[in-house]
Specification:
The structure is a homodimer of 161-residue chains. Chain A is of the alpha+beta class. Chain A contains four helices and nine strands. Chain A is 29% helix and 40% strand.
């Protein structure tokens, strides 16, 4: 299914050029020590992350509000194509335990573009209401800021190399 | 996660000895020409089945009521361990398109037992309400009858061999 076949009103998309090589952008998404540096838009923070990056593997990312409140986000990976594609969802907390509220499925693709990366995040929902709510929660701003932080983190790795 | 860790009130289970070899019981679940023979408890029928049996592959089973009304059931496979384990859900219509209503996830396991098969179907739901509704729709009777039909079909294959 191409993106255009899926109902647009249940989908949110970020499509960006990221000024860092594809393998480093991929590492930022799949190495928990890197993910905590960029995943949550400031002033929120990512308190911890553990990730078993394989189809059926679990992930747990704990976000922290400016007031210090913790928000655990359990999920699993549905598809992992090394360096190219990463699909995850909160519909399961592990393989195969349905969560209490399936909210979203993220489909990330990474492609070479010049010296950098074409980074595309397609976020799909089970209902139009959830998609709308996600947008109103500040999806574009939040994922936009997070992607800035992702780019910065990936660039710092390139500088270290 | 073992079954006992998952909330029992969101889970329905069929655990049966099936008097046919494991590879034949597996074939009945994974060959569309066989599945149509047993999948839907009489007097309902299975009108057609198409199945791409691999993780991320789609399936479409069309059931037919005694009045001739057709009920298409799209879903996907989440995990396939040849001859041993089959996991599927209606939460996606294909990889990775969330359906309009995620209702259930089926986790089937097949194990040798004597000359037959220990067949276990664990069906999990996202909500207690859905699990209850599924039970009230006649889950145990329906899956029980379907399992009788499955056994009969698998046995007929053994007789042919």
């Amino acid at each position: 299914m191409t993106t255009s076949d899926f109902p647009a009103e249940r989908e949110l998309v970020i499509d960006r050029y990221v000024d860092a090589p594809r393998d480093l952008v991929w590492r930022c998404w799949t190495d928990p020590e890197l993910l905590v540096k960029w995943f949550t838009p400031a002033p929120w923070k990512t308190r911890s992350a553990s990730m078993d990056v394989r189809a059926g593997g679990s992930s747990m990312v704990v976000m922290e509000s400016p007031e210090g409140e913790l928000f655990p986000n359990p999920g699993i990976y549905l598809e992992v194509v090394e360096g190219e594609k990463l699909v995850f969802t909160d519909a399961y907390t592990e393989a195969w335990a349905p969560s209490e509220k399936p909210f979203m499925t993220g489909i990330l693709t990474f492609a070479d573009e010049g010296k950098g990366t074409r980074y595309r995040a397609v976020v799909r929902h089970w209902s139009v209401e959830d998609s709308k709510r996600h947008e109103e929660m500040g999806f574009h701003d939040g994922w936009g800021k997070a992607t800035d932080q992702l780019e910065e983190t990936a660039k710092s790795l390139a500088a270290d190399a």
